[in-house]
Design a protein that fits this description.
Number of strands: 4
Strand content: 15-25%
Distance between the termini: 23 Å
Structural class: alpha+beta
Oligomer: single chain
Largest sheet: 4 strands, mixed
Strand order of the largest sheet: 1-4-3-2
Shape: globular
Number of domains: 1
Radius of gyration: 11 Å
Order of helices and strands: EHEEE
Number of helices: 1
Length: 55
Amino acid sequence: MHVDLTSTSLDDQQQTVRRALELGGRHIDVGQLPEELHVVLDDPEGNEFCVLPGR
C-alpha cells in the first residue's frame, strides 16, 4: 500500500514533511523530477509515502 498525505498549502506541506522527518522518516529518490512538487519519504520501517502540495 502507498499512502499520499495531502496538504492545504506549501507551508502545511513543509510542516508535515518536517514532522515526518522528526519522527524518523527520510527523503528517498524514486526518480521524481525537480519540478514535481510532491515530497517522497519513507518511514522507519521502509514504507514509502508522499506528501502532496496544497491545491
